[in-house]
Write a structure and sequence with these properties.
The complex is a heterotrimer of chains A (251), B (549) and C (366). Chain A has 251 residues and is an alpha/beta fold. In chain A, 36% of the residues lie in helices and 24% in strands. Chain A is built from ten helices and ten strands. The longest helix of chain A has 14 residues. Chain B has 549 residues and is mostly helical. Chain B has two domains: 136 residues, no CATH class; 282 residues, ABC transporter involved in vitamin B12 uptake, BtuC. Chain B has 22 helices and seven strands. In chain B, the strands form two sheets. Chain B has a five-stranded antiparallel β-sheet with strand order 4-3-2-1-5. A two-stranded antiparallel sheet of chain B has the order 6-7. Chain B starts with a helix and ends in a 15-residue tail after the last helix. In chain C, the strands form two sheets. Chain C has a two-stranded antiparallel ribbon with strand order 1-4. Chain C has a two-stranded antiparallel sheet with strand order 2-3. Classes of the chains: A alpha/beta (251), B mainly alpha (549), C mainly alpha (366). Chains in contact: A-B, A-C, B-C. Chains B and C meet through helix 15, helix 18, helix 20 and helix 22 of B and helix 5, helix 6, helix 11 and helix 13 of C.
């Protein structure tokens, strides 16, 4: 198992944001998590990457406990995170954004005496081609469009070469065409990395969910199954219906 | 020699007969009139000598005035002058000297004051004044100033005159001032204690000293416990000393608690406005202290207006100043908001720098208008204090500030949590864009909030005039402290501002009582940094996923 | 093209300050007063470089740089004063201590009798201070405004501490009455010129080192921290280390500047390290153009030059001028003098109206 989670629980001001009794992920598995707003999806990823401290629970990543570690330690373990709101370095160039992400020694001294190498440059350009940013390398990241920023952030995560990627709503704010491209990219990445994707767009979910889909509702795991099973599960429909959620029309 | 014995016997007799003996008073009256207007050359010095020999307490005010060369005649009676009213005014209040030592009043009963030059002065030669030597120690016992009387009582300790105890007892019967009476009694009991020969007598005086509870009682009893010859009384005194010391340390603690609360209330008054504004708009207003300064100057201006221009010499000005300082500081805040702040919402660091510039301008402005130092006279009803018990006095001005803080905090709380405006302010604080979508006019809310925040600072400034001078950079003394209050309390939290304001104020005073003020400050900073290690978002942080972004 | 322009600018700077002014001084055209004034401005420019590194590049607003500046200044001043006292014979105790009835040199003064140790401690103490203080602040993730306020409180507390007589640092009067440094008389014109040149050289050195630093990957990480601290740590950079390093570097630059400053002024007092002094240092950078090393130097030099002119021409209005400059710069010239100059330059070159003013794009964002 790449990731196994037990009895994870966190609450904000008395409200249970997450109460996950069991969750596992195989190596090189692409898992999609769906659920209505406030289901605790982002909170779950926040805990995995060290942003939020849970009240109790156990998280093992490659048999190593994750909880209690700092963000940097978790990143070094091999977990990379893409946020819902694109989080890049807006005043640096696209190239520098990717250079900083590249997997290497990241201590102060290493940074001070860093010399760019052919290998790093090739790899960055390779990834830039994949995410469609090869022509924008010299541009300042703050000037990119929303979709491009999403891709840049994915590129940042890819260049860290993590074993597990946590991808939060990659398709938000993208055109249909861009969304499809993102989907292809994710499936390609899943050949080498474990990936957890949070998504609302059901068309996109259908495109990428070749394995299991997990449904979270009010912090709890409602059901796990293939996309078709989920689509026809009455409980899932109810939970979306009960909240009169806009995503309903996608079903 | 023979003569002296006779005189002493006479005095003793007179004291026994009581000071109201008619014959005695008359003779003093006659002697005094002879001093004022001597029928022949040597009559004045003879009369003075006789007065000295009589050592009668009722003549001391007169003799004291003679010694001070402040003897005047008004309507045939001897009078003297008191402390000058106001600086360099040349006007002095007048006091009767005999038969009673009271302020001179006119027909309607109002005290009379006069220019020194307008009075008919009686010049007494140096030789004559020197003849007062034997009673000099007693003269100030009748001084109109209670503080001088206290000193005079103390001086009796070192006088070797054996009749001093009787004269002191005599003088104390006339004593009306409470503090002076306590101080005088302490001296008397001390003398009697030291002269006591029996255990019971000594213990009785130790008890008297204890219940009188004067300034130096611990020292006196300590000395006695160390040097007395009566063993039981010695032990008894030592026991009393321990009891008194415990009591005193308790009182000191109470006093510290009180000054901590009063410092805390000032910090709360200042920090309240800061916290609201920072929470609402992400504005760090470095000029906030200057709004306090504006409030203080508004109070000063009201004082000048009332007293100098309108000639109303009453405490009314202070009550008018409270709302006026709020309004003026608020209006300044509003102007600042329109000119500068509104371009800087949600850019705290920029707002910090720009408002620092504004604060420079305001300080310099105040300096060029008002000069460097001005003071507001505290209203007379706030002079003095509430004496909870002997040696524990809570000054009224500090009590007033605490009361004002309670009122202001309650009003602010009601405004924020019980009014429509409050709902809007809280809505914008929590989610600006959503509020604006829901039809809250955020700009207007910002402006009103800024007005209120600045006004609160102005009110704090008005209160500050009660305990300090009004100076152009008075705001900067408190600004860093009040920011620490905001940081410790948590962003935009009223409860946070109150708890941390009180906490910091209290800790400052407690630490100051152990260490010097400066080290207290350094320690406070260290404590705050340690505190933030555990609670980086202050006492009352926002919770939830969004709050962490 | 950018490069050649830079070189032309450096050349002009060096020719003017390193050749024209000193030669003019030697020939008697430029007064020694002017020379020593500019020598001090260069010290301020060195501090400004440090402020720009930590604030402009890393986004950490440190409001206690003047304190570090004074730590350096006091170190050198302590050396000059104690060495002077030792040279004049007697107990070797400085005069001001004798007046306070102190007749043996306090233990912490002893190492400062040696010049080498004084310099070493003058750098070590601020660095250690920045390390310890910074560690606790950055560890608990105090940032932004909180950082500004805490450092301001530190500056205030330290200022109060230095004002005290019993800290044995001269209290309110500070340390003064400097005579010789390494056997050179500080009042001689040639020594003043020498200090001027030294300050200028140190400034140039500091500038080029800072430029190297900013251009390296280290510098990019600093900017990454400014842009998004969380993204930086998810990208596996230990933000705490980087912040501490740059805080120490900026403290060292400030201390270095203080060391050069004290002998040139002949006095160092706690007045140099109050809250106001630190905020002013930040303002030099804001006015010059933060996030650009050249801007920091430009700001420090122009503001201080303006200060000298204004205080002699209209002494009462300096604070008004400074205050308005603060407000207007923050509101309308986000990029400072340098940004304004560049905008002006662009206008001349293209001979058409410059880009729209910054302020309008920077208004209320929710």
């Amino acid at each position: 198992m790449l990731l196994s989670v037990q009895d994870l629980s966190v609450s904000f001001g008395g409200v249970h944001a997450l109460n996950l009794s069991h969750f596992t992920l195989r190596d090189k598995e692409l898992r999609v998590i769906i659920g209505p707003n406030g289901a605790g999806k982002s909170t779950f990823l926040d805990i995995l990457c060290g942003k939020t401290k849970p009240d109790s629970g156990k998280v093992l990543f490659n048999e190593t406990p994750v909880l209690g570690k700092t963000e940097v330690e978790i990143a070094n373990l091999g977990i990379g995170r893409k946020f819902q709101k694109p989080s890049v370095f807006p005043s640096l160039t696209v190239y520098d954004n990717m250079l900083l992400a590249f997997k290497m020694k990241k201590s102060i001294l290493a940074s001070l005496f860093f010399k760019p190498t052919e290998e790093i440059d090739t790899r960055i350009r390779e990834v830039a081609v994949k995410v469609g940013l090869i022509t924008e390398l010299k541009k300042v990241a703050g000037e990119l469009s929303h979709g491009q920023k999403q891709w840049l952030e994915i590129a940042i995560v890819v260049l860290q070469d993590p074993k597990l990627m946590l991808i939060d709503e990659p398709a938000a704010g993208m055109s249909d065409e861009e969304t499809e491209k993102t989907g292809e990219l994710l499936m390609q990445l899943a050949r080498h990395h474990g990936i957890i994707v949070i998504e609302h767009d059901m068309k996109f979910v259908e495109q990428i969910a070749k394995e299991l889909v997990t449904v979270l509702v009010r912090g709890k795991l409602l059901v796990e199954g293939s996309f078709d099973e989920i689509r026809n599960d009455q409980r899932v429909i109810d939970s979306y219906l009960g909240r009169a959620n806009v995503q309903l029309e996608n079903f | 020699m023979n003569y002296t014995i006779k005189v002493w016997a006479g005095i003793a007799l007179c004291l026994l007969m009581g000071k109201n003996a008619a014959a005695q008073s008359d003779s003093i009256g006659i002697l005094i009139s002879q001093v004022l207007d001597p029928p022949h050359d040597s009559a004045r010095s003879m009369a003075l000598h006789k007065l000295v020999a009589l050592r009668d307490a009722s003549s001391f005010p007169f003799l004291g005035a003679v010694n001070d060369k402040k003897i005047y005649v008004r309507e045939g009676k001897p009078v003297t002058t008191g402390e000058e009213t106001g600086e360099d005014s040349g006007i002095f209040p007048l006091y009767n000297l005999y038969p009673e030592n009271t302020p001179v009043t006119d027909a309607s009963g109002k005290p009379v004051a006069a220019e020194a030059g307008s009075l008919q002065k009686v010049d007494i030669s140096r030789t004559d004044r020197l003849s007062l030597g034997p009673v000099l120690a007693y003269l100030n016992l009748a001084n109109p100033d209670p503080k001088k009387r206290i000193i005079a009582y103390g001086q009796l300790l070192t006088t070797s005159d054996s009749s001093k105890m009787n004269i002191l007892a005599e003088a104390l019967q006339l004593e009306k001032d409470k503090d002076a009476l306590t101080a005088g009694k302490e001296i008397l009991f001390q003398m009697k204690l030291n002269a006591s020969l029996s255990e019971t007598e000594a213990q009785a005086y130790i008890d008297s000293l204890d219940s009188n509870w004067g300034e130096n009682v611990t020292n006196i009893l300590q000395d006695y416990a160390a040097s007395a010859k009566l063993p039981a009384a010695k032990a008894y005194a030592a026991g009393k000393v321990t009891a008194l010391e415990t009591l005193q340390s308790r009182i000191e603690k109470a006093q510290n608690l009180f000054s901590g609360i009063s410092l805390g209330s000032i910090l709360i008054l200042i920090a309240l406005g800061l916290a609201i504004v920072y929470g609402l708009a992400g504005i760090i207003n470095m000029a906030h202290g200057e709004f306090m300064m504006i409030g203080a100057y508004a109070t000063f201006c009201m004082q000048s207006l009332f007293i100098d221009t309108l000639g109303i010499n009453s405490d009314m000005f202070f009550f008018v100043s409270l709302p006026v300082s709020f309004l003026i500081a608020g209006v300044f805040g509003l102007i600042l908001e329109k000119l500068v702040i509104r371009h800087l919402y949600s850019r705290p660091l920029e707002s910090l720098l720009a408002t620092w510039g504004v604060s420079l301008i305001l300080v310099q402005l105040a300096r060029s208008i008002f000069g460097d130092l001005t003071a507001v006279k505290a209203p007379s009803f706030l002079a003095g204090g509430w004496q909870v018990m002997p040696h524990l006095i809570l000054p009224f001005n500090r009590l007033f500030i605490i009361g004002l803080t309670i009122v202001v905090v309650s009003l602010t709380y009601l405004m924020l949590y019980r009014s429509r405006l409050g709902i809007r302010i809280r809505a914008v604080t929590q989610n600006r864009s959503m509020s604006s979508c829901l039809g809250v006019e955020t700009r207007k809310v910002d402006a009103i909030t800024f007005f209120l925040g600045s006004g609160l600072a102005g009110l704090a400034g008005c209160a500050m005039t009660l305990i300090g001078n009004v100076v152009p950079d008075m705001g900067q003394t408190y600004i860093v402290d009040s920011f620490l209050v905001v940081v410790t309390g948590g962003v935009g939290k009223i409860a946070g501002a109150i708890v941390s304001g009180l906490g910091i104020g209290f800790l400052t005073k407690v630490l100051e009582s152990f260490y010097e003020a400066v080290y207290g400050k350094v320690l406070i900073l260290a404590l705050i940094i340690i505190f933030l290690q555990f609670k980086p978002r202050g006492l009352f942080p926002d919770k939830g996923r969004i709050a962490e972004d | 093209m950018e490069k050649t322009k830079d070189y032309r600018l450096y050349l002009a700077f060096v020719v003017f300050f390193l050749i024209l002014l000193p030669v003019g001084n030697l020939l008697g055209f430029v007064s020694t007063n002017t020379i020593s004034l500019w020598g001090r401005y260069f010290c301020f420019a060195i501090v400004a470089l440090g402020v720009d590194l930590i604030w402009g590049y890393t986004g950490i607003l440190s409001m206690c740089q003047a304190f570090f500046f004074c730590l350096g200044g006091y170190a050198v001043a302590m050396h000059i004063v104690s060495a002077g006292a030792a040279a004049s014979g007697g107990s070797g105790v400085p005069d001001f201590m004798t007046w306070n009835q102190v007749d043996t040199l306090p233990f912490f003064w002893v190492p400062f009798q040696s010049f080498g140790l004084a310099i070493l401690l003058g750098l070590l103490i601020p660095a250690a201070f920045a390390f310890v203080f910074g560690y606790f602040i950055f560890r608990s993730r105090i940032k932004g405004v909180y950082m500004a306020i805490i450092t301001q409180a530190l500056a205030l507390a330290m200022w109060l501490l230095f004002l005290r007589n019993e800290t044995m640092l001269g209290g309110t009067n500070g340390l003064t009455d400097f005579k010789n440094l390494l056997g050179l008389s500080l009042s001689s014109g040639n020594v003043k010129l020498g200090m001027y040149v030294l300050s200028l050289l140190v400034l140039c050195g500091a500038y080029f080192l800072s430029k190297k630093l900013v251009g390296s990957k280290f510098g990019k990480v600093l900017q990454a921290i400014r842009d998004s601290e969380s993204r930086t740590s998810y990208t596996a950079y230990r933000v705490l280390d980087y912040k501490l390093a740059i805080f120490m570097i900026s403290a060292l630059l400030a201390a270095l500047a203080g060391m050069l400053y004290a002998p040139q002024t002949g006095i160092i007092t706690p007045g140099r390290m109050d809250v106001k002094a630190s905020v002013e240092m930040v303002m030099w950078v804001a006015l010059g153009g933060r996030g650009k090393l050249k801007g920091a130097i430009l700001g420090a030099l122009t503001v201080n030059f303006l200060y000298s002119i204004c205080t002699s021409l209209f002494p009462d209005s300096w604070l008004f001028i400074l205050g308005f400059l603060f407000v207007i710069t923050v509101l309308y010239f986000d990029k400072g003098f340098l940004g304004a100059l560049e905008m002006l330059g662009a206008k001349f070159r293209k001979n058409k109206p410059a880009a729209r003013p910054v302020a309008e794009t920077e208004t209320l964002q929710s």
